[in-house]
Amino acid sequence: MNTIMRKSVLGIAGLAVAGGLAAGPLNHADTAPEAATPVTAVAVQADKPAVDTAKLIPHGVQGAQSRIDLSDEQVGNVKAIIAATKKAGMDERAAVVSIATALQESKLENLGHLGDRNDHDSQGLFQQRPSSGWGTVEQITDPEYSTTAFLKGLKQVDGWQDMPLTEAAQTVQVSAYPDHYAQWEQQAADLVAKHWNN
Hints:
By secondary structure, the chain is mainly alpha-helical. It has helices at residues 2-47, 53-56, 72-87, 92-106, 137-140, 143-155, 165-173, 185-195.
């Protein structure tokens, strides 16, 4: 019995060694280039700094929060707002204020003139008015331009970084419904956290 068991163990060990030698170099030669690509991709992902979520909502949200599902076009507008915010040299909090404002004003849809349903001559993501000096129709319906115009107004608000979102947004927008911006703060923060480093 001892001899039979010893032969079985040696046989299994021999198969394992032979299998490892045969499979190891073949697999290594075939997969080395493929294995290098994912490792590089992971390293790039790991190098991206995480968004400081405490900066996104420094005062906590105010009131009940709303949330909508976004289409690809709306997500594209989120990314355009973030890109314009970075280009303006502003931080993640400015992007949160901008996105929450656009969520309230247009649900992140780049709206043209709505006819009888239009609020005066308001258009674009931020419902800016050409007659109020925001720019031409072509300009305010360009997501980068309209975001830059909004951010320019935000920069002129002393202490906007320390204000509740709805106060900062209202100071720029001068809306008839000043408290409505607050309901979008959490979704705006979630969107910035998701897309800031993309």
